[in-house]
Design a protein that fits this description.
The protein is α/β, with parallel strands linked by helices and about 425 residues long. It is built from 13 helices and 13 strands. The radius of gyration is 23 Å and the shape is globular.
């Protein structure tokens, strides 16, 4: 009888889940291969482009691409229609993060980035962190989701939401501190610092003597601990704590997003670099794990991320920069190649490697238009990332190869080795 009731409950749960997904994008593993399933029930991959915007101001306030848009198009809608026509012609099918909302009205799948941690005090540029255990963080997450997700609950063209972009999960290009040391530097009464101290008290059985021996630090009172150590044991402790931060962050974001909008996917927080295994495991609350990769071959890293998370992967940034574009290419990530033909070859190799992975459900190129020669206003990046240059002209030798491999994407992925 119990088995019968369990079977009935599982059948009912599956039926309710299927009803919730009907008409909206979701992910599904079919015969050992992961796919997005579109509102019409068909399998698809998300082939997107980031930052499709009609403006790209530089550090001096100039706007070369924006000037082109204003000269060539009577209004933003005309620019949007032409840009989307190009997107389709080049066999892309998704509007990536940071794109202009004017594009969302034309029945093309799109994504939204909510900037939840950024609204709670995180800073992408400096790597400033935030307190995931603060009641304010949970409230900020719910407020951001309510404000941005509720109006889109019934939008069949929304692919899903990113909670943030390239948060700091440990030592990286923005600083050498671990999350544990950053949390220990928080105000004494902050929930995050108290959580860090409770973690250490439990780990070292409330003994500063054991902590001193493990970390090689001088401390006689847990409450006065305000720094990390340099030992292997300290690094192991920091890694475990980072996993706790990650798990808390992704769970709070998942709960907020799905409470505000039960119809759409939570696409993760666009990992950059190589976060630790503990941090990756914390992302399992997301429906899809998103990663930004700036390398020639993504194979080993995406395999590892999937092994740690068990969730389908969306590559949300990748790019190659060519020397013949006339841009400095001195600031920004990504492999440099000699010319646009080589850029297309690099794109083809990278994408082919991704499509051979059964757990990859798409890729988003960074970005639509080149960065200005003087560097973008945000951080001075000045690289040849664009499908088009500042005059709105496509890089033909590059685009030809992009179009060719994008056209084959679904067929190549369908023949990937199954899980």
């Amino acid at each position: 009888m119990r088995r019968t009731l369990l079977a009935l409950s599982l059948t009912l749960a599956f039926a309710l889940s299927a009803v919730a997904q009907m008409g909206y994008f979701h992910v599904q593993e079919q015969n050992g291969i992961w796919w997005f399933i579109g509102p019409n029930g068909h399998r698809r991959l998300s082939l997107g482009v980031d930052s499709i915007r009609p403006s790209a101001r530089d550090t001096a306030g100039n706007d070369p691409y924006g000037n082109t848009v204003r000269r060539l198009y009577p209004d933003l809608n005309a620019w949007a229609l032409h840009s989307l026509a190009r997107l389709r012609m080049w066999r892309f099918n998704t509007i990536g993060a940071w794109s202009d909302p004017v594009l969302f009205q034309h029945e093309v799948p799109y994504t939204i980035i909510l900037n939840i941690a950024a609204r709670a005090g995180a800073n992408w540029k400096t790597g400033q962190t935030f307190d995931v255990w603060s009641p304010r963080f949970a409230q900020v997450a719910q407020d951001a989701a309510n404000r941005q997700c509720i109006p889109r609950v019934n939008d069949h063209w929304l692919l899903g939401y990113f909670s943030d972009n390239e948060l700091r999960w440990g030592p990286d290009w923005r600083g050498k501190d671990t999350l544990l040391s950053l949390y220990l530097k928080m105000p004494p009464s902050s929930p995050g610092r108290q959580k860090a101290l409770a973690f250490l008290r439990d780990r070292y059985r409330d003994s500063t003597r054991r902590l001193r021996a493990a970390w090689g630090v001088r401390v006689r009172d847990f409450d006065r601990l305000a720094t990390g150590g340099r030992t292997a044991q300290y690094r192991a402790d920091a890694d475990q704590f980072a996993g706790m931060v990650s798990a808390r962050y992704f769970q709070v974001c998942a709960d907020a997003i799905h409470q505000a909008d039960p119809n759409h996917l939570y696409l993760g927080a666009r990992f950059a670099g190589h976060p630790s295994d503990a941090v990756l495991r914390g992302a399992r609350s997301a429906d899809v794990v998103s990663v930004n990769i700036y390398s020639s071959d993504p194979t080993q890293w995406v395999k590892h991320v999937f092994q740690m998370t068990g969730r389908p992967l969306l590559i949300t940034e990748f790019a190659f920069r060519a020397a013949d574009a006339g841009l400095p290419n001195s600031k920004g990530a990504g492999v440099k190649v000699p010319d646009q033909s080589a850029r297309g070859q690099a794109y083809t190799r990278f994408v082919t490697a991704l499509l051979r992975q059964p757990f990859v459900v798409g890729y988003h190129w960074f970005e639509w238009a080149d960065e200005p020669p003087l560097g973008r206003a945000l951080d001075g990046e000045n690289s040849n990332y664009g499908l088009v240059n500042s005059a709105g002209q496509p890089y033909t030798a590059f685009i030809k190869q992009v179009q060719a491999i994008n056209s084959q994407a679904k067929t190549l992925h369908a023949s990937a080795p199954s899980l």
